[in-house]
């Protein structure tokens, strides 16, 4: 259904249909083999087409959710600027639509990995109780997403401390194990590849907020 709605027709559509339907698998542990089980959904693990098919599958959510959303692989974020309670209800409506979409395509949500986070520098921001499938979502005040730690105020202080600590540990490991190294070029290569890469990861996200701050405490 999803592929057809994207304008994919036969014979490619029929070939893809035969590729992802009617699949069976079994589990083997040492010399014990389970019975064959029919796989009703999903794409073949490790298949060359699997990532592309999954992205096409998940991207169908863009036709359901009308408000702002961010998608990265199987990670989806729905967000809205909240100034009043009515906007909270609008966001909840989007979450309800999202839940209906997952049900319609046979996806199950891992609610333990679904969270709510509000970004604001107000002293008393609006904290509404949002839910998915009747289950209240856990509100968090520190969240790691794609390697970056976020806080409600978006000051990235925690992320910087974690990053510096991680980089110092790697730097210490290099110093302890390169006493016999005589090549400065080799040491620089180790630093740039193992230490500086940690410090610069995602820098375009968190560094701009520090342009007007004293960063000497992070050194």
From TrEMBL:
InterPro entries, per database record: DNA/RNA_pol_sf (IPR043502), RT_dom (IPR000477)
Domain Reverse transcriptase residue range list: 1-137
Protein name: RNA-directed DNA polymerase from mobile element jockey
One Pfam family recorded for the sequence: RVT_1
Key word Membrane present: no
Lineage: Eukaryota, Metazoa, Ecdysozoa, Arthropoda, Hexapoda
PANTHER family: REVERSE TRANSCRIPTASE DOMAIN-CONTAINING PROTEIN
Keyword Aminoacyl-tRNA synthetase appears in the UniProt entry: no
SUPFAM superfamilies linked to this entry: DNA/RNA polymerases (SSF56672)
UniProt source species: Schizaphis graminum
């Amino acid at each position: 259904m999803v592929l057809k709605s994207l304008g994919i027709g036969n014979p490619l559509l029929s070939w893809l249909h035969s590729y992802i339907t009617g699949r069976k698998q079994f589990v083997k542990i040492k010399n014990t083999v389970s019975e064959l089980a029919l796989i009703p959904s999903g794409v073949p693990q490790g298949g060359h087409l699997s990532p592309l098919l999954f992205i096409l599958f998940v991207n169908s959510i863009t036709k359901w959710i009308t408000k702002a959303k961010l998608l990265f692989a199987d990670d989806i974020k729905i967000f809205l600027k909240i100034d009043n309670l009515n906007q909270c209800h609008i966001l909840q409506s989007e979450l309800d639509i999202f839940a209906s979409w997952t049900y319609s395509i046979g996806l199950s949500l891992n609610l333990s990995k679904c969270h709510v986070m509000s970004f604001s520098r107000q002293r008393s921001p609006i904290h509404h109780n949002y839910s998915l499938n009747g289950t209240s979502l856990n509100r968090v005040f520190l969240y790691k997403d794609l390697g970056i730690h976020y806080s409600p105020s978006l000051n990235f202080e925690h992320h910087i401390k974690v990053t510096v600590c991680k980089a110092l540990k790697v730097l210490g490991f290099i110093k302890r194990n390169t006493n016999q190294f005589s090549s400065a070029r080799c040491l620089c290569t180790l630093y740039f590849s193992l230490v500086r890469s940690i410090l610069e990861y995602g820098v375009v996200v968190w560094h701009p907020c520090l342009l007007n701050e004293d960063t000497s405490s992070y050194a």
